[in-house]
User: Fold Sialin from Anopheles gambiae.
Amino acid sequence: MDATESSKLSDGINAPMWMFWRRRRYVLVFLAFFGFFNVYSLRVNLSVAIVAMTENRTVQYPNGTIGYEQEFDWDSTTKGYILSSFFYGYIFTQLIGGYISNALGGNYVFGVGVGVTAGLTLLTPLAAHAGFGWLIAVRATEGFFEGVTFPCIHAIWSNWAPPSERSRMATIAFSGVFTGTVASMLLSGVLADTLGWEWVFYILGAFGCLWFVAWMLIVKKSPESDPYITTKEKEFILATLQRSADGGEKVQHPWRGILTSKAVWALIVSSFSENWGFYTLLTQLPTFLRDTMHFELQAAGFLSALPYLVMGLLLSVAGYLADLCQIRRWLTTTQVRRYFNCGAFLAQTVFMLVGAYILRPAPTLTCITIAVGCGAFAWCGFAVNHLDLSPKSAGVLMGISNTFSTVAGILTPIVSGQLTASGSENEWRTVFYIAAGIYLIGCVTYWFGVSGELQPWSIEAREREREKQRQDGGQGYANEGLVMEQKA
Assistant:
Protein backbone atom coordinates (compact mmCIF):
# COMPACT_ATOMS: atom_id res chain seq x y z
CA MET A 1 0.00 0.00 0.00
CA ASP A 2 1.48 3.36 -1.02
CA ALA A 3 1.43 6.65 0.89
CA THR A 4 -1.67 7.97 -0.89
CA GLU A 5 -3.73 4.85 -0.19
CA SER A 6 -2.65 4.57 3.44
CA SER A 7 -3.52 8.24 4.06
CA LYS A 8 -7.19 7.40 3.35
CA LEU A 9 -7.36 5.05 6.34
CA SER A 10 -7.91 6.23 9.92
CA ASP A 11 -6.39 5.06 13.18
CA GLY A 12 -9.69 5.75 14.94
CA ILE A 13 -8.15 8.08 17.52
CA ASN A 14 -10.13 11.28 18.03
CA ALA A 15 -7.23 13.55 18.92
CA PRO A 16 -5.00 15.99 17.00
CA MET A 17 -1.57 14.72 15.93
CA TRP A 18 0.28 16.98 18.36
CA MET A 19 -1.20 14.95 21.25
CA PHE A 20 1.42 12.29 20.60
CA TRP A 21 0.78 10.44 23.88
CA ARG A 22 -2.62 9.32 22.52
CA ARG A 23 -0.95 7.27 19.78
CA ARG A 24 1.51 4.55 20.71
CA ARG A 25 3.46 4.91 17.47
CA TYR A 26 4.18 8.55 18.33
CA VAL A 27 5.12 7.67 21.90
CA LEU A 28 7.75 5.51 20.20
CA VAL A 29 8.77 8.45 18.00
CA PHE A 30 9.07 10.70 21.09
CA LEU A 31 11.35 8.23 22.87
CA ALA A 32 13.28 7.52 19.65
CA PHE A 33 13.90 11.27 19.39
CA PHE A 34 15.58 11.24 22.80
CA GLY A 35 17.34 8.02 21.89
CA PHE A 36 19.05 9.77 18.99
CA PHE A 37 19.55 12.79 21.22
CA ASN A 38 21.69 10.52 23.40
CA VAL A 39 23.33 8.81 20.43
CA TYR A 40 24.83 12.09 19.25
CA SER A 41 25.27 13.93 22.55
CA LEU A 42 27.46 11.02 23.69
CA ARG A 43 29.31 11.03 20.39
CA VAL A 44 29.89 14.79 20.10
CA ASN A 45 30.84 15.66 23.68
CA LEU A 46 34.51 14.81 23.14
CA SER A 47 34.78 17.23 20.19
CA VAL A 48 34.26 20.14 22.60
CA ALA A 49 35.77 18.58 25.72
CA ILE A 50 39.04 17.82 23.93
CA VAL A 51 39.57 21.55 23.38
CA ALA A 52 39.44 22.11 27.16
CA MET A 53 41.53 19.00 27.80
CA THR A 54 44.38 20.24 25.59
CA GLU A 55 44.27 24.04 25.94
CA ASN A 56 47.10 25.97 27.58
CA ARG A 57 46.15 26.86 31.16
CA THR A 58 47.79 29.45 33.35
CA VAL A 59 49.58 27.78 36.28
CA GLN A 60 51.29 29.38 39.28
CA TYR A 61 54.26 27.32 40.48
CA PRO A 62 55.32 27.05 44.18
CA ASN A 63 58.18 29.50 43.62
CA GLY A 64 55.67 32.16 42.51
CA THR A 65 56.40 32.07 38.79
CA ILE A 66 53.61 31.85 36.21
CA GLY A 67 53.63 29.30 33.42
CA TYR A 68 51.38 27.50 30.96
CA GLU A 69 50.56 23.80 30.94
CA GLN A 70 48.34 21.42 29.04
CA GLU A 71 46.56 18.70 30.99
CA PHE A 72 46.94 16.47 27.93
CA ASP A 73 49.79 17.28 25.57
CA TRP A 74 48.27 15.92 22.35
CA ASP A 75 49.14 17.33 18.94
CA SER A 76 46.58 17.72 16.13
CA THR A 77 47.39 14.30 14.66
CA THR A 78 46.88 12.54 18.00
CA LYS A 79 43.62 14.42 18.55
CA GLY A 80 42.50 13.34 15.08
CA TYR A 81 43.04 9.68 15.97
CA ILE A 82 41.24 10.10 19.29
CA LEU A 83 38.25 11.81 17.66
CA SER A 84 38.02 9.13 14.97
CA SER A 85 38.43 6.21 17.44
CA PHE A 86 34.68 6.10 18.08
CA PHE A 87 34.23 4.86 14.52
CA TYR A 88 36.79 2.06 14.87
CA GLY A 89 34.14 0.10 16.75
CA TYR A 90 31.13 1.71 15.09
CA ILE A 91 31.93 0.27 11.66
CA PHE A 92 31.81 -3.35 12.86
CA THR A 93 28.24 -3.43 14.11
CA GLN A 94 26.35 -1.84 11.21
CA LEU A 95 25.45 -5.06 9.42
CA ILE A 96 25.18 -6.96 12.69
CA GLY A 97 22.71 -4.39 13.99
CA GLY A 98 20.46 -4.75 10.96
CA TYR A 99 20.58 -8.54 11.12
CA ILE A 100 19.99 -9.13 14.83
CA SER A 101 17.27 -6.48 15.02
CA ASN A 102 15.10 -8.72 12.84
CA ALA A 103 15.79 -11.71 15.09
CA LEU A 104 15.66 -10.15 18.57
CA GLY A 105 13.60 -7.02 17.98
CA GLY A 106 14.96 -3.61 17.05
CA ASN A 107 13.64 -2.08 20.27
CA TYR A 108 15.83 -4.27 22.51
CA VAL A 109 18.98 -3.87 20.45
CA PHE A 110 18.51 -0.09 20.10
CA GLY A 111 18.01 0.31 23.85
CA VAL A 112 21.02 -1.78 24.83
CA GLY A 113 23.21 -0.03 22.24
CA VAL A 114 22.50 3.41 23.68
CA GLY A 115 22.46 2.23 27.32
CA VAL A 116 25.91 0.61 27.20
CA THR A 117 27.33 3.66 25.42
CA ALA A 118 25.97 5.87 28.21
CA GLY A 119 27.57 3.66 30.85
CA LEU A 120 30.94 3.76 29.10
CA THR A 121 30.69 7.57 28.80
CA LEU A 122 30.77 7.74 32.59
CA LEU A 123 34.15 5.97 32.47
CA THR A 124 35.69 8.33 29.89
CA PRO A 125 37.51 10.65 32.37
CA LEU A 126 39.07 7.64 34.07
CA ALA A 127 40.22 6.30 30.70
CA ALA A 128 41.68 9.67 29.65
CA HIS A 129 43.78 9.92 32.81
CA ALA A 130 45.01 6.35 32.28
CA GLY A 131 46.39 7.31 28.86
CA PHE A 132 45.21 8.14 25.37
CA GLY A 133 45.38 4.44 24.45
CA TRP A 134 42.75 3.66 27.07
CA LEU A 135 40.66 6.59 25.89
CA ILE A 136 40.78 5.29 22.32
CA ALA A 137 39.77 1.82 23.56
CA VAL A 138 36.76 3.15 25.50
CA ARG A 139 35.61 5.33 22.63
CA ALA A 140 35.96 2.44 20.16
CA THR A 141 33.87 0.24 22.46
CA GLU A 142 31.25 2.98 22.69
CA GLY A 143 31.17 3.05 18.91
CA PHE A 144 30.79 -0.74 18.78
CA PHE A 145 27.60 -0.62 20.83
CA GLU A 146 26.24 2.55 19.27
CA GLY A 147 26.77 1.16 15.77
CA VAL A 148 23.57 -0.88 15.98
CA THR A 149 21.29 2.11 16.53
CA PHE A 150 20.58 3.34 12.98
CA PRO A 151 20.05 -0.15 11.46
CA CYS A 152 17.79 -1.07 14.40
CA ILE A 153 15.56 1.98 14.08
CA HIS A 154 14.74 1.04 10.49
CA ALA A 155 13.69 -2.41 11.70
CA ILE A 156 11.41 -0.62 14.19
CA TRP A 157 9.92 1.66 11.49
CA SER A 158 9.20 -1.37 9.30
CA ASN A 159 6.84 -2.58 12.06
CA TRP A 160 5.39 0.73 13.22
CA ALA A 161 5.42 3.38 10.45
CA PRO A 162 2.50 3.65 7.98
CA PRO A 163 3.75 4.68 4.49
CA SER A 164 1.86 7.99 4.65
CA GLU A 165 3.70 8.91 7.88
CA ARG A 166 7.07 7.31 7.15
CA SER A 167 9.10 10.43 6.33
CA ARG A 168 7.49 12.38 9.17
CA MET A 169 8.05 9.73 11.87
CA ALA A 170 11.62 9.03 10.78
CA THR A 171 12.68 12.67 10.48
CA ILE A 172 11.11 13.66 13.82
CA ALA A 173 13.10 10.90 15.49
CA PHE A 174 16.26 11.74 13.49
CA SER A 175 15.96 15.39 14.53
CA GLY A 176 17.11 14.15 17.93
CA VAL A 177 20.51 13.72 16.27
CA PHE A 178 20.85 17.45 15.78
CA THR A 179 19.12 18.47 19.00
CA GLY A 180 21.55 16.21 20.83
CA THR A 181 24.45 17.71 18.90
CA VAL A 182 23.33 21.24 19.78
CA ALA A 183 22.73 20.46 23.45
CA SER A 184 26.02 18.59 23.76
CA MET A 185 28.05 21.37 22.18
CA LEU A 186 26.38 24.04 24.30
CA LEU A 187 26.53 22.11 27.57
CA SER A 188 30.02 20.77 26.97
CA GLY A 189 31.51 24.25 26.60
CA VAL A 190 29.72 25.56 29.70
CA LEU A 191 30.42 22.48 31.85
CA ALA A 192 34.09 22.38 30.83
CA ASP A 193 34.53 26.05 31.76
CA THR A 194 32.59 25.96 35.04
CA LEU A 195 32.79 22.46 36.56
CA GLY A 196 35.65 20.95 34.59
CA TRP A 197 35.74 18.85 31.44
CA GLU A 198 35.06 15.60 33.37
CA TRP A 199 31.49 16.71 34.08
CA VAL A 200 30.75 16.79 30.37
CA PHE A 201 30.85 13.00 30.45
CA TYR A 202 29.25 12.49 33.87
CA ILE A 203 26.09 14.53 33.17
CA LEU A 204 25.47 13.38 29.60
CA GLY A 205 26.22 9.77 30.51
CA ALA A 206 23.78 9.85 33.44
CA PHE A 207 21.00 11.24 31.22
CA GLY A 208 21.58 8.41 28.75
CA CYS A 209 21.23 5.83 31.52
CA LEU A 210 17.87 7.32 32.61
CA TRP A 211 16.61 7.22 29.02
CA PHE A 212 17.62 3.55 28.74
CA VAL A 213 15.35 2.59 31.65
CA ALA A 214 12.35 4.45 30.15
CA TRP A 215 12.88 2.98 26.65
CA MET A 216 13.14 -0.62 27.84
CA LEU A 217 9.97 -0.31 29.93
CA ILE A 218 7.76 1.41 27.33
CA VAL A 219 8.75 0.49 23.75
CA LYS A 220 7.73 -2.85 22.25
CA LYS A 221 8.89 -4.69 19.13
CA SER A 222 5.66 -4.26 17.15
CA PRO A 223 2.02 -3.17 17.53
CA GLU A 224 1.04 -6.81 18.05
CA SER A 225 3.19 -7.09 21.18
CA ASP A 226 2.22 -3.73 22.73
CA PRO A 227 -0.44 -4.28 25.45
CA TYR A 228 -1.36 -0.58 25.62
CA ILE A 229 -2.09 0.14 21.95
CA THR A 230 -5.74 0.54 20.97
CA THR A 231 -7.25 -2.11 18.72
CA LYS A 232 -8.08 0.46 16.03
CA GLU A 233 -4.55 1.90 15.94
CA LYS A 234 -3.07 -1.60 15.72
CA GLU A 235 -5.41 -2.57 12.89
CA PHE A 236 -4.64 0.71 11.11
CA ILE A 237 -0.88 0.10 11.23
CA LEU A 238 -1.18 -3.54 10.15
CA ALA A 239 -3.54 -2.63 7.28
CA THR A 240 -1.28 0.11 5.91
CA LEU A 241 1.75 -2.18 6.13
CA GLN A 242 -0.29 -5.03 4.60
CA ARG A 243 0.69 -7.32 7.43
CA SER A 244 -1.34 -9.79 9.42
CA ALA A 245 -1.20 -10.00 13.18
CA ASP A 246 0.40 -13.45 13.06
CA GLY A 247 3.50 -12.16 11.25
CA GLY A 248 6.94 -13.04 12.53
CA GLU A 249 8.34 -15.35 9.87
CA LYS A 250 12.09 -15.70 9.56
CA VAL A 251 13.50 -13.13 7.15
CA GLN A 252 15.84 -14.34 4.39
CA HIS A 253 17.51 -11.30 2.87
CA PRO A 254 18.11 -11.29 -0.92
CA TRP A 255 21.85 -10.53 -0.73
CA ARG A 256 22.55 -10.87 -4.44
CA GLY A 257 19.73 -8.49 -5.34
CA ILE A 258 20.84 -6.00 -2.67
CA LEU A 259 24.50 -5.95 -3.68
CA THR A 260 23.78 -5.62 -7.42
CA SER A 261 21.08 -2.95 -7.09
CA LYS A 262 21.81 0.44 -8.66
CA ALA A 263 19.39 2.09 -6.21
CA VAL A 264 21.24 0.62 -3.21
CA TRP A 265 24.63 1.81 -4.44
CA ALA A 266 23.25 5.29 -5.16
CA LEU A 267 21.99 5.29 -1.58
CA ILE A 268 25.41 4.21 -0.28
CA VAL A 269 27.26 6.97 -2.17
CA SER A 270 24.73 9.57 -1.01
CA SER A 271 25.01 8.47 2.61
CA PHE A 272 28.83 8.55 2.47
CA SER A 273 28.80 12.04 0.92
CA GLU A 274 26.45 13.57 3.49
CA ASN A 275 28.32 11.98 6.36
CA TRP A 276 31.74 13.12 5.12
CA GLY A 277 30.63 16.75 5.32
CA PHE A 278 28.67 16.15 8.49
CA TYR A 279 31.52 14.48 10.40
CA THR A 280 34.09 16.96 9.10
CA LEU A 281 32.17 19.77 10.80
CA LEU A 282 31.04 17.70 13.77
CA THR A 283 34.58 16.81 14.84
CA GLN A 284 36.53 19.82 13.59
CA LEU A 285 34.28 22.87 13.86
CA PRO A 286 34.99 23.60 17.57
CA THR A 287 38.74 23.42 16.92
CA PHE A 288 38.44 25.55 13.77
CA LEU A 289 36.48 28.26 15.59
CA ARG A 290 38.77 28.20 18.63
CA ASP A 291 42.19 28.04 16.96
CA THR A 292 41.66 29.70 13.56
CA MET A 293 38.70 32.03 14.11
CA HIS A 294 39.97 32.81 17.67
CA PHE A 295 36.71 32.38 19.62
CA GLU A 296 36.72 31.57 23.33
CA LEU A 297 35.81 28.00 24.34
CA GLN A 298 32.21 28.74 25.40
CA ALA A 299 31.60 30.84 22.28
CA ALA A 300 33.16 28.14 20.09
CA GLY A 301 30.86 25.54 21.65
CA PHE A 302 27.78 27.72 21.13
CA LEU A 303 28.63 28.68 17.55
CA SER A 304 29.50 25.07 16.68
CA ALA A 305 26.00 24.11 17.81
CA LEU A 306 24.24 26.74 15.69
CA PRO A 307 24.30 24.84 12.35
CA TYR A 308 22.84 21.74 13.99
CA LEU A 309 20.15 23.77 15.74
CA VAL A 310 19.04 25.04 12.33
CA MET A 311 19.15 21.52 10.89
CA GLY A 312 17.16 20.09 13.80
CA LEU A 313 14.45 22.71 13.34
CA LEU A 314 14.29 22.17 9.58
CA LEU A 315 14.25 18.37 9.74
CA SER A 316 10.67 18.04 10.97
CA VAL A 317 9.55 20.65 8.41
CA ALA A 318 11.34 18.78 5.62
CA GLY A 319 9.79 15.47 6.68
CA TYR A 320 6.30 16.97 6.72
CA LEU A 321 6.80 18.50 3.26
CA ALA A 322 8.12 15.20 1.87
CA ASP A 323 5.03 13.32 3.11
CA LEU A 324 2.73 16.09 1.88
CA CYS A 325 4.20 15.97 -1.64
CA GLN A 326 3.47 12.24 -1.77
CA ILE A 327 -0.01 12.37 -0.21
CA ARG A 328 -1.17 15.19 -2.51
CA ARG A 329 0.40 13.42 -5.52
CA TRP A 330 2.53 16.45 -6.35
CA LEU A 331 5.56 14.19 -6.62
CA THR A 332 6.16 10.46 -6.75
CA THR A 333 8.21 8.84 -4.00
CA THR A 334 11.21 8.64 -6.33
CA GLN A 335 10.90 12.33 -7.19
CA VAL A 336 10.64 13.30 -3.52
CA ARG A 337 13.82 11.39 -2.71
CA ARG A 338 15.68 12.78 -5.75
CA TYR A 339 14.66 16.43 -5.52
CA PHE A 340 14.98 16.77 -1.74
CA ASN A 341 18.31 14.92 -1.54
CA CYS A 342 20.05 16.33 -4.60
CA GLY A 343 18.75 19.86 -4.11
CA ALA A 344 20.20 19.82 -0.61
CA PHE A 345 23.56 18.44 -1.82
CA LEU A 346 23.83 21.10 -4.50
CA ALA A 347 23.15 23.87 -1.97
CA GLN A 348 25.68 22.35 0.45
CA THR A 349 28.32 22.26 -2.28
CA VAL A 350 27.80 25.93 -3.12
CA PHE A 351 27.77 27.24 0.46
CA MET A 352 30.79 25.19 1.53
CA LEU A 353 32.76 26.60 -1.42
CA VAL A 354 31.70 30.17 -0.68
CA GLY A 355 32.39 29.84 3.05
CA ALA A 356 35.84 28.38 2.40
CA TYR A 357 36.72 31.06 -0.14
CA ILE A 358 35.75 33.96 2.17
CA LEU A 359 37.00 32.38 5.41
CA ARG A 360 35.98 35.19 7.75
CA PRO A 361 34.16 34.53 11.04
CA ALA A 362 30.65 35.88 10.33
CA PRO A 363 30.19 35.05 6.61
CA THR A 364 31.92 31.65 6.88
CA LEU A 365 29.84 30.59 9.87
CA THR A 366 26.70 31.77 8.06
CA CYS A 367 27.59 29.67 5.00
CA ILE A 368 28.38 26.63 7.16
CA THR A 369 25.07 27.04 9.01
CA ILE A 370 23.09 27.19 5.75
CA ALA A 371 25.01 24.21 4.34
CA VAL A 372 24.36 22.05 7.40
CA GLY A 373 20.73 23.23 7.59
CA CYS A 374 20.12 22.15 3.99
CA GLY A 375 21.13 18.66 5.05
CA ALA A 376 17.68 18.36 6.67
CA PHE A 377 16.18 17.98 3.19
CA ALA A 378 18.83 15.43 2.20
CA TRP A 379 17.73 13.26 5.12
CA CYS A 380 14.29 12.99 3.47
CA GLY A 381 16.13 11.19 0.69
CA PHE A 382 18.94 8.86 1.68
CA ALA A 383 17.98 8.43 5.36
CA VAL A 384 14.52 6.93 4.71
CA ASN A 385 15.04 5.52 1.20
CA HIS A 386 15.84 2.06 2.64
CA LEU A 387 12.19 1.65 3.64
CA ASP A 388 11.06 2.34 0.06
CA LEU A 389 13.30 -0.31 -1.49
CA SER A 390 12.43 -3.15 0.90
CA PRO A 391 10.86 -2.54 4.33
CA LYS A 392 11.78 -6.00 5.66
CA SER A 393 15.40 -5.53 4.64
CA ALA A 394 15.53 -1.86 5.66
CA GLY A 395 17.62 -2.55 8.77
CA VAL A 396 20.21 -4.47 6.76
CA LEU A 397 20.21 -1.81 4.02
CA MET A 398 20.82 0.86 6.65
CA GLY A 399 23.61 -1.27 8.06
CA ILE A 400 25.29 -1.50 4.66
CA SER A 401 25.00 2.22 3.86
CA ASN A 402 26.00 3.24 7.38
CA THR A 403 29.09 1.02 7.18
CA PHE A 404 30.34 3.14 4.29
CA SER A 405 29.27 6.29 6.13
CA THR A 406 31.34 5.18 9.09
CA VAL A 407 34.41 5.03 6.84
CA ALA A 408 33.82 8.75 6.33
CA GLY A 409 33.64 9.19 10.11
CA ILE A 410 36.97 7.39 10.51
CA LEU A 411 38.80 9.17 7.70
CA THR A 412 37.68 12.78 7.96
CA PRO A 413 39.07 13.55 11.47
CA ILE A 414 42.39 11.94 10.49
CA VAL A 415 42.56 13.69 7.12
CA SER A 416 41.55 17.01 8.66
CA GLY A 417 44.09 16.58 11.46
CA GLN A 418 46.87 15.90 8.94
CA LEU A 419 45.85 18.81 6.69
CA THR A 420 45.54 21.38 9.52
CA ALA A 421 48.77 20.67 11.40
CA SER A 422 49.57 24.38 11.69
CA GLY A 423 45.95 25.61 11.67
CA SER A 424 46.47 28.06 8.79
CA GLU A 425 43.58 29.44 6.76
CA ASN A 426 44.69 27.76 3.54
CA GLU A 427 44.82 24.39 5.30
CA TRP A 428 41.21 24.80 6.47
CA ARG A 429 40.17 25.91 2.98
CA THR A 430 41.43 22.58 1.65
CA VAL A 431 39.33 20.71 4.25
CA PHE A 432 36.17 22.55 3.19
CA TYR A 433 36.90 22.23 -0.55
CA ILE A 434 37.21 18.46 -0.17
CA ALA A 435 33.85 18.31 1.63
CA ALA A 436 32.21 20.39 -1.13
CA GLY A 437 33.59 18.12 -3.85
CA ILE A 438 32.27 14.99 -2.12
CA TYR A 439 28.82 16.58 -1.75
CA LEU A 440 28.79 17.17 -5.52
CA ILE A 441 29.75 13.56 -6.28
CA GLY A 442 26.91 12.39 -4.05
CA CYS A 443 24.47 14.72 -5.80
CA VAL A 444 25.24 13.43 -9.30
CA THR A 445 25.30 9.76 -8.28
CA TYR A 446 22.02 9.86 -6.37
CA TRP A 447 20.23 11.83 -9.10
CA PHE A 448 20.82 9.10 -11.69
CA GLY A 449 20.56 6.05 -9.42
CA VAL A 450 17.77 6.76 -6.93
CA SER A 451 14.52 4.80 -6.75
CA GLY A 452 11.63 5.24 -4.34
CA GLU A 453 9.83 2.08 -5.46
CA LEU A 454 9.69 -1.42 -4.00
CA GLN A 455 12.49 -3.31 -5.73
CA PRO A 456 11.91 -6.53 -7.74
CA TRP A 457 14.46 -8.36 -5.57
CA SER A 458 12.79 -7.33 -2.29
CA ILE A 459 11.20 -9.83 0.07
CA GLU A 460 7.86 -8.07 -0.27
CA ALA A 461 7.88 -8.18 -4.10
CA ARG A 462 8.67 -11.89 -4.04
CA GLU A 463 5.89 -12.56 -1.53
CA ARG A 464 3.40 -10.71 -3.72
CA GLU A 465 4.54 -12.63 -6.79
CA ARG A 466 4.10 -15.95 -4.97
CA GLU A 467 0.65 -14.90 -3.76
CA LYS A 468 -0.34 -13.87 -7.29
CA GLN A 469 0.85 -17.21 -8.66
CA ARG A 470 -1.09 -19.04 -5.97
CA GLN A 471 -4.25 -17.11 -6.76
CA ASP A 472 -3.78 -17.60 -10.51
CA GLY A 473 -3.25 -21.32 -9.94
CA GLY A 474 -6.38 -21.56 -7.81
CA GLN A 475 -8.39 -19.68 -10.42
CA GLY A 476 -7.05 -22.03 -13.09
CA TYR A 477 -8.24 -25.08 -11.18
CA ALA A 478 -11.63 -23.47 -10.66
CA ASN A 479 -12.03 -22.73 -14.38
CA GLU A 480 -11.00 -26.28 -15.29
CA GLY A 481 -13.62 -27.70 -12.93
CA LEU A 482 -16.30 -25.45 -14.43
CA VAL A 483 -15.49 -26.69 -17.95
CA MET A 484 -15.69 -30.32 -16.84
CA GLU A 485 -19.07 -29.66 -15.19
CA GLN A 486 -20.43 -28.13 -18.39
CA LYS A 487 -19.22 -31.12 -20.45
CA ALA A 488 -20.92 -33.48 -18.03
Observations:
- DSSP finds 21 helices and two strands in the chain.
